[in-house]
C-alpha cells in the first residue's frame, strides 16, 4: 500500500472539506481530509445521516455542479478541482453506482442502459458495442442482454447498474450501499468485480454499514463518519477496535472483542421483552392457515402449493431470497391476490368470507415502503382514514389516534398530529405506517421487510419497538435479512421458489447448511457464533446479546431480557 | 466559504426537466385508467389523472408541462386502444394546458390567492385556454363549430376543470413541504 | 389490471421493419385520411390499412379489450357528434339536406347526408386506429427514442419519450402497491357513492402518494443521468437504423397514396359521397 502511494498521484485529494446545503442550517460534512490512491479500496461506514451521501457527491462532482450550497476546503480529482471539471469529463474519472439501482437505470433494455453513458459522451457505435461485450463479460450479465430492465430482479439490476458505470471506464469507482438488496451469490459476484478492479489499479470507495459483508472486499482503509465528522480513518483492524457495534453491523468476533475490551458497552444492549406470551395450547386454532395454496400473476405461478400454520401467539419469520414468494404469501392471505387453488383460513374460518378491510382488523399489514400510502394533509387525518373507511364511530377517533401514536412512541414528537406525513423522516414514516396498521386495533401484525431502507441501528431499534408494542398477540414478518429473522422469530418458514422448504425454530432450520446455501442465504458470523455458544434447542441471540452472554454467562444475558424470542428455553 | 447557486431558466432543458417530464407523462398514462362517466351525461368521461398535466406544469415549468400533456395523452390514447394518431390534435391541446400552467406559475398568478386558490386558478385558466385547441377538430374531423363547441370543447372542459381544480391544489399542498426537504 | 405497453409484434414482418417506418406510415396515413370524405376511397384505404395491420401479427386475444374500447368509443363519438347535434353537416347548407325522418322528441333531422357522413366518419376513425395500432405494439419500446431522434425530433425530446417508456412499468408496479396498501385501510376506489366531485376526491389516496414518491425518486435518476454526462453535448445512439428495400417500398407506397389523395382533394374529388339509395329513399 505504502509503495503504491509513493508511486502514483492520488486520484482524489480532499482537504478541509465542509459543505452546507443551500436550504440547510448546519453543514452536512465538516472538515474532512482524505486522499484516495490508485489501487486502494476505501470502506466508508457510518449510520444514516453521517454525511456519507454528501461525501460521495463531493467526490463525483454533483457538489458543486448540481447541489448548490456553501463549500469550504478543496476537492481535487485527477489533479483538478471538481468545480473546474465539467461533469461530462469527470464522468470518465469517477463512476458512481447509486444506492437504488431501480432509480439509476434509465434504459428500457439492458443494452440501452449499458450504452447510456457512452452515448451521452458521443462515442462511436463500434466502440460502444465493443465495450458492451467486455462489460457484459466482466459483470457476468451476458445472459441478460436483450432483456427489458423492468423485468430484472433486484440482484440483476444492481449488477446492471454496475455495468453501466464500467462502460465509462473510470479510474475511481464509488459504490453506495450495494449490498442492501443483494443475495449472497450476487453480492459475492459484485465484490469480486470490485476487488479485481482494485487489483488492476483502480481506486474503489464503497459506502456500506453492513461492515461484516463489506469486509469480504478486503478494504485497505476504513473511513468512519459520525455526524458529518471523521471519527476514524485507518486500517481495518484499527477500525474494528473502535467501531460502535450498535451503529454498524460488525462481524460477531469483532463485537465480542469490543465488549471484552470495553465492558461498559454491554450496558447498552437492552432488548425489551414481549408481553404476555405463553406457550400456545397445542389444540389452539392457528391465526392463519394455508392449505395447498397456489397463487400468481397472470400465467406466472409464484406459490406452488403452500401448507403452513401460523399461530395465534407467535413470531414467525418468512425467510427467503427475493422473488421466492414470501410477500405473495401474505398478499394472498389479505385477499389482495386471489389464490388459484387451495384454502386460506383465518382463526378457523375461510378468509374469503371476509373483505380486505375486515381482514385488516385481524392483520395490521405494514408495507415495505411507508411513503407509498401517505397522502393526507396531517398525521391525524392519516390515522383516521382507516377507521373512517370501516365506519368506526367518530367519537372514538381521538382515542384511536392517541393510542396508535403512543404505542409507536410517536406521541413524543412536537405537534405530531398536524405534521404533513411526507415531511417526517424515513424512520418516523416507518413508525407512522405501523401506527396506521394499529389504528384498526388488530391482534396480529404482518411486517414486510421491516429493515429495508434503514441502517443497522435504526432497523434494530425499530424491531425492538415493534416487539414492545403492548396488546399484540402475534407478529409475522417477511424478510431476506438472515440475522433479523433468526434473532426475532420463534419460528422460521424457509422459502425457496414458491415452496416452504423448512419450518421450525431458528436453531433447527439453520442446521442443514446445504439447504441454507441452496436457498441463496448467507451463512452469517452470528449463525456460527450462536451454534458455537448456545445450546442447540435455545433461541438465537443478536450479536450484542450473544457477546454479553459469552462474556458474563447465561444468567446475565437472560437478565438483559431475552424476551419472547426463544422457544424451549426458560 | 464560497457560496454557489445554480440559475435555471424556465425554458432550459436539462436532465432535471427531462426526468420530470418523463415521469409526468408516465404517471398520466398509468393513472388514467381511473376514469368514470358522469351518470346521466352525454358520455362525459372524467379522468382524474388529467390533473397531473397542470400540476407538473405548475411545479416544474412550461417545458415539463408541455411534455407531460403531449406525450402523456398520446400514451393514454395508445394504451386504451383509441390509437396514437386518431386524435393527435388533442395531444397538443393537453400539452398546451401544461405549458400555460407552467407559464402562469412562473408569473405572479401563482402567488395570488394563497396556496389553495392560486393553484386552482392557474389550473382553471390553463385548462380553459389550452383546451381551446380542440376546436381544431373542425379541420381534422370536419366538424362544424357547434359540434366542436359542445361535442369537443365543453365535453372535455367540464370534466377536466373538475379534476384540475380539485386535485391540483391538493397535489401542490403535498408537494410544497417536500420541495423544501429535497437537497437542491 | 394496469396496462403497460407491450411489444406484441415482436418478430413479425412489420415488427422487423425499421422503427421509423410505422411512425412515418402512421403520420402519412393520418394526413391522407384527414382529407377524405368519400367513403369509397376511405374503404380502399381501410382495406389497405387492415392488410398492413396483419403484417404486425398482433395476437387478437391480447388486444381484444383495446379494440372493443376503441370501436365502442368512436361509435358513440360519431353517433353523438354527427347525428344528434342538430343534423348540421360540414359545409352543407341546411336547405340542401335530404331528410329521411326526424328524431322523436328532439326533432333533429336525420338526412341522407348525415347518415353518409356518420358512416364515413366511423370508417375514417377505424382506419386511423388500424394504422395506429402497430405504432403501439410493433415498435420495440427501446427503439422509439432512436427512431424519433433519427426523424429529426430534438434528441432530448426523443430521449424523454424513451425515458417515459422506461418509467411506465415501474410506476404501474408502484400504483398497484399503493392500491394494495390503501385497500388494507378499507379503501376501495370504485365503492362509495357521490357525484363526480366526490369521485375525483376519492382518487387522492392513490394519486398523491404515487406522484410524490415519483417526484422524490426522480432526484436519484437526475443524479444518475448527470453523472453519466447526459445533456452536456451531442449524443450518439447505439441503435443503428437503416431502411432496407421493404422499408423503402412501404414508405414510397404510403407517400404515393398521400400525394394522390392530396391532388384528388385539391381537385375537389374527395368530398362527401352521399349514398345514392339514401337519396332515393329521401324522395329525390
CATH superfamily of the domain at 2-248 in chain A: P-loop containing nucleotide triphosphate hydrolases
Question: Helices and strands of chain A: which structural class?
Answer: alpha/beta
Computed over alpha carbons, the radius of gyration of chain C is 24 Å
Q: Percent of residues of chain A in beta strands? A: 15-25%
Mean pLDDT of chain C: 87
Q: CA-to-CA gap between the ends of chain C?
A: 53 Å
What's the CATH class of the domain at 2-248 in chain A, please? Alpha Beta
Sketch the major β-sheet of chain C: 2 strands, antiparallel
Major sheet details of chain A: 6 strands, mixed
Number of E-type strands of chain A: 20
How much beta of chain C, percentage-wise?
Answer: under 5%
| CATH T-level fold name of the domain at 2-248 in chain A | Rossmann fold
Descriptors:
heterotrimer, A: 570 residues, alpha/beta, Rossmann fold, 6-stranded mixed beta sheet, 24 helices, 36% helix, globular, disordered N terminus, disordered C terminus, B: 184 residues, mainly alpha, Arp2/3 complex 21 kDa subunit ARPC3, two-stranded antiparallel ribbon, 7 helices, 3 strands, 66% helix, 3% strand
Structure description:
- The complex is a heterotrimer of chains A (570), B (184) and C (284).
- By secondary structure, chain A is α/β, with parallel strands linked by helices.
- Chain A is built from 24 helices and 20 strands.
- In chain A, the strands form four sheets. A six-stranded mixed β-sheet of chain A has the order 6-7-8-3-9-10, sandwiched between helices. A six-stranded mixed β-sheet of chain A has the order 16-17-18-13-19-20, sandwiched between helices. Chain A has a four-stranded antiparallel β-sheet with strand order 2-1-4-5, covered by helices on one side.
- In chain A, strand 4 (69-77) and strand 5 (80-81) form a beta hairpin.
- The longest helix of chain A is centred in the middle third of the chain and has 16 residues, at 184-199.
- The model of chain A is unreliable at 1-6, 272-278 and 555-570 (pLDDT under 50).
- In chain B, strands 2-3 form a two-stranded antiparallel sheet.
- Chain B is 66% helix and 3% strand.
- By secondary structure, chain B is mainly α.
- The longest helix of chain B has 37 residues, at 145-181.
- Chain B has seven helices and three strands, in the order E-H-E-E-H-H-H-H-H-H.
- Chain B has one domain: Orthogonal Bundle (Arp2/3 complex 21 kDa subunit ARPC3).
- Chain C starts with 19 loop residues before the first helix and ends with a helix.
- Chain C has a two-stranded antiparallel ribbon with strand order 1-2.
- In chain C, a hairpin with a 6-residue loop joins strand 1 (99-102) and strand 2.
- With 284 residues, chain C is mostly helical.
- The radius of gyration of chain C is 24 Å and the shape is flat.
